[in-house]
Automatic annotation (TrEMBL):
Signal peptide region: none
GO molecular function annotations of the record: S-methyl-5-thioribose-1-phosphate isomerase activity
Annotated site, Transition state stabilizer, chain positions: C144
First-tier enzyme category under EC: isomerase
One Pfam family this sequence matches: IF-2B
Residues of the active site: D224
Name used for this protein in its record: Putative methylthioribose-1-phosphate isomerase
Organism listed in the record: Methanothermococcus okinawensis
Amino acid sequence: MKRDTLKSLTWDEENSQLVLIDQRKLPHKLEYFICDNYEDVAFAIEDMVVRGAPAIGISAAYGMALAEIGGEDIEKAYNRLKNTRPTAVNLFWALDRCMRAYRDRRSILSEAKLIHREDMEACRRIGEIGESIIEDGDTVLTHCNAGALATSAYGTALGVIRFAHYRGKSINVVVDETRPRLQGAKLTSFELKYEGIPVKIITDSTAGFLMSRGMIDKVIVGADRILKDYTVFNKIGTYSLAVLAKYHNIPFYVAAPTSTFDFKSSIEDVTIEERDEREVLYIEGKRIAPEGVGAYNYGFDITPFELITGIITERGIIYNENDNRGNSF
Ligand code: MRU
């Protein structure tokens, strides 16, 4: 049973450095990006060296620890890290925990390590609990990368898939490219190949056709923020998949740790990240659209709970009682 998943981030105790897998270089090169100070961490989050809600939260916590170690202004570090990306709540949750530790005169580094360990445990539990929704022979569609690369280990949506695989279930994965950053084509396929789980890539526009042909049994995605009414913010394209899954009567699950829940905000309070339009207008550095044409580049969308069968957390599965697609209740 293979349990050594990729480590998107590691704390190097000896050198007091945060070591990140440089996700911009995958799948062609496995290179590391070393953070010596909080500014390095802030850059890594902004430029998506590290990405995925739990992974950016943990990285930001180590960024605060680096500020503490370097004797820097903690409030300044907090504000810099807080302004890196707006949508995933794990970032603010982790930074607030570190700020509380600092104000209580506790070690920020110890708090960061605790956040890191807790996420590993949460992802492991999500995998163990969630694998029960997978049946032997299922073909599962996933979106973006909610894997080990997006967390401390295992992943959330991919944690569920990994544990089904570890428990001997035969499972096929279909992942969409996830334009424009291609987390599906580049990262999820890389992770699944590493694990030996069969995976096929589709363009983002192929999902409906596969569903209409009966080629998808379940959809499982991650989340960047979940509100108290279980509205889910996740990578752009999630909402379209949820609508398609509902139409085709295919169970649609979200997997996320409780650190992704935000019971304080309402929909209007949440900023949907808008990234540089060049991410859409260019592919691998080459412009694909005519000069003078602009683009929308929203990073995330909003899926209401009515389109969701269940939310898998480390504490159990929150089923939507009004949804009759699931087969586990
Ligand atoms: O822009 P990204 O790559 O950081 O977006 C990541 C996602 O949307 C993931 O699906 C989400 O963070 C869940 S990760 C376990």
